[in-house]
Design goal:
There is one protein chain. By secondary structure, the protein is an alpha/beta fold. It has a domain of 225 residues: 3-Layer(aba) Sandwich (Rossmann fold). The protein contains 10 helices and 15 strands. The mean pLDDT is 93.
Length: 339
């Protein structure tokens, strides 16, 4: 990785993390802080600098939807990690058709980023985008390896794919080096977590901690590739050493295992009971709401071998261990301190 020289003559690479106060972005920031880098953490909300950081970490509070803000945020960057999520209500991803606010964030900010890099005249700039496996749409096989055609079904999936295509088109044009890392269901907390996980797994953990039943919109046999957030952060760090080999396409990340959600939630109920000393809550199937989408009932397993062959990365934290860390964090009340 080539590096720019900062004002102090520091030649370490400058990695800019956009969305650094968010769920995935904060985990990426914690991981990058362990490396000998310069890191600029950009978010609309205040960013927590990881304790004991080896990296030189600069924080900036910026509303990137303001015209011209993107150029200043990424100035001098060797790598930009785009981990901005449009959050509405209790979910990080479910949006309605015609939501212009979501489109401005999910797609518009990628356009702004491309134009900012174009104006900088630095085509060696690499952009790592947090894509989504769901951009491919439901698969009859239920197994995704990155070669399946893209047929997104929901508005969130369509917007994530549109943003990815903007980035990769710019990469093909030579404006930048674009890389999309498509993520499956990401979840979890570790001892140093600083951002709320609004995904399905942690939401059900919170229900169990509150003594409420865990509910499913199906019979529990739907499988999901559940990828622990700390493993996701390591994947982004691993990509930094292989930017040229990764550039110009999307790559799928996952654990390589599709876990049935019924047994997962039963495990969650048991683990929470062990933490709280109360009986395990019930795990129930309920009627799906009107806003349920096809993806809610689709099984997903990801085959990440292509990314592994380039970077050597693989998911390291076993599912039960990741669930245990997550239930311990939630049962401790640590989430109450999140904004």
């Amino acid at each position: 990785m080539t590096a720019t020289t900062g004002q102090t003559g520091d030649t370490r690479p400058l990695v800019v993390v956009l969305g650094a106060a968010g769920f995935v972005g904060s985990a990426v920031l914690r991981e990058l802080a362990r490396h000998d880098l310069r890191v600029r953490a950009v978010s609309r909300r205040p960013v927590t600098v990881p304790a004991g950081a080896r990296a030189e970490v600069e924080t900036r509070s910026v509303d990137l939807t303001v015209p011209g803000a993107m150029a200043g945020a990424i100035e001098g960057a060797d790598v930009v990690v785009h981990s901005i999520a449009y959050i509405a209500g209790s979910s990080t991803w479910r949006i309605t058709d015609g939501d212009t606010g979501a489109e401005r964030v999910n797609v518009g900010l990628v356009r702004d980023l491309v134009e900012a890099v174009r104006a900088s005249g630095r085509p060696d700039t690499a952009v790592l985008f947090t894509g989504s496996v769901s951009a491919a749409g439901p698969s009859e096989r239920g197994v995704y390896d990155g070669t399946e055609p893209d047929e997104p079904q929901g508005e969130y999936d369509r917007q994530k794919l549109a943003a990815e295509r903007v980035l990769l088109a710019a990469s093909a044009e030579g404006v930048l080096r674009g890389i999309s890392l498509r993520l499956p269901t990401v979840f979890g907390y570790g001892p140093d977590s600083t951002a709320r996980d609004k995904g399905i797994v942690s939401s059900m953990v919170r229900r169990a901690v509150a003594g409420e039943p865990i509910t499913m919109w199906h019979d529990g046999t739907v499988r999901r590739d559940l990828l622990y957030v700390e493993d996701v952060a390591r994947a982004f760090a691993a990509a930094l050493g292989h930017l040229d080999a990764l550039a110009g396409r999307h790559w799928v990340l996952g654990s390589g295992h599709g876990a049935e959600l019924g047994p997962v939630f039963t495990t969650v109920a048991r683990m929470v009971a062990e933490r709280t000393g109360k009986p395990p809550v019930a795990v129930r199937s309920v009627e799906p709401p009107a806003h349920a989408e096809a993806r809610d009932f689709a099984s997903v397993t990801v085959d990440p071998r292509a990314f592994h062959e380039v970077t050597g990365w693989r998911a390291e934290v076993p599912l039960d261990e990741a669930l245990d860390r997550t239930t311990a964090f939630s049962a401790s009340g640590a989430e109450e301190h999140f904004g």
